[in-house]
Amino acid sequence: MNKLNKILTGILVFLAAIVFFTGITFSILRSKNKTKYTLPDSEKIFLNQAEFKSSSSQNNKAFTKIGKLRVATKPGKNGKTKIVLITPYIEYSDDQAFYEELDRNLAKMREIILNYFSERTAEELAKKNEEKINSEILEKLNSILILQKIQRLYFTDFLIL
After folding, report:
1. Element containing residue 93 per DSSP (H, E)
2. Around 137, how many Cα atoms within 13 Å sit in the side-chain half-sphere?
3. Which residues contact 73 (CB under 8 A, 6 or more apart)?
4. What CA–CA distance (Å, rounded) separates 125 from 160?
5. Would you write out the chain's pLDDT as a tens digit for each of its 161 residues?
6. Cα torsion angle, 26, 32, 37, 40, sign
7. Cβ density class 76-94: b for 16+ within 10 Å, e for less
8. Which of 13, 60, 61, 158 has the fewest CB atoms within 10 Å distance of its CB?
């Protein structure tokens, strides 16, 4: 019986070592596979309805429910499409009724943003600066809103792959 306990203990130690080393290996591989374009956690913006100060120093809110979007561009001259990864958030003045309007129009806003990028080639997007893209999308988003207008549109991620 004593010999059986030693064998079982040895097997358990061996299995624990395998689990430990497998976990270390996966964590190392996972950290190597992170893209160089992602922001460090300290720089990411997670503002789900969080207050922040704008440049005009008045209290505003950030609407972040749109989330991360992925869309294929229109085929370019070479016939290939590119993938655009974006994470938009919207700055608006602190108003509960307007927040509810934004929430009701969430699907439409996603569709407007996705359509904007899918109707353009990667070359067209590369020629425009981010401010021009923001203003064009902002104009389309504001056209569906009634109570107020969106003050600013930001992208925490904007990658053309």
Report:
1. strand 83-93
2. 29
3. 81, 82, 83, 84, 117, 118, 120, 121, 122, 125, 160
4. 9
5. 688 888 888 888 888 888 887 878 777 776 655 444 444 443 344 433 333 444 444 678 888 999 999 999 999 888 899 999 999 999 888 888 999 999 999 999 999 999 999 999 999 998 888 889 999 999 999 999 999 888 899 888 888 88
6. positive
7. eeeeeebebbbbbbbbbee
8. 13
Q: Which two tokens stand for residue 77?
A: 């001259």
User: What's the per-residue H, E or C state across 7-38?
Assistant: HHHHHHHHHHHHHHHHHHHHHHHHHHCCCCCC
CA dist 153 to 24, 70, 139, Å?
Answer: 41, 17, 10
Q: Angle of helix 96-104 relative to helix 106-118, nearest 10 degrees?
A: 60
Q: What is the DSSP letter of 94?
A: S
Per-residue confidence (pLDDT) for residue 110, from 0 to 100: 95
